[in-house]
Amino acid sequence: MKENQKPEVWLRGPIPHIPPLLQPVAHALMQAVEELAVFSAFFPADLLWEKPSGLASVGFHLQHLSGVLDRLFTYARSESLNENQLAYLKNEGSATLGDETYESLLLTFEKQVAASLKQLESTPEATLTEVRYVGRAMVPSTQLGLLFHAAEHTQRHVGQLLVTARILLARQDR
Known about the structure:
The chain is mainly alpha-helical. Helix content is 53%, strand content 5%. It has a two-stranded antiparallel ribbon with strand order 1-2. A hairpin with a 4-residue loop joins β1 and β2. The longest helix has 31 residues, at 143-173. It is globular.
């Protein structure tokens, strides 16, 4: 570990107000925010939608991270997706406004993580094994299954984003 670098979030102890069984979910989401911040000050906007070797773009990953958290946490509340969520899903991976930046997409993700943490705070542990349904097909899961999947899915996309961003930045430096 580099000098003055903090330990990973999960090694810093419990997050206040988050139920003990949901600490790993909160830790993973907070870690994602920290890891993505590494490029916030300098990732070039012209590389945001590049797809090196056909990989998903950095912009897609940032949009998808926000959208999937919103959707999975909606299902965890035992709710269906609304029209705005469905429209967001349809547009993931495209420069919908044309003026997106890494920073603006990261800010959207940070806000979604904050909303997710608020939901975790108010989630009674006694409800974690209750059945929840996913999507129009109503695939059964549990509240804990959805929240855990939200955490691991987030970490998977963060890893992919970091690798793609490094590939793009290395190409730019040549």
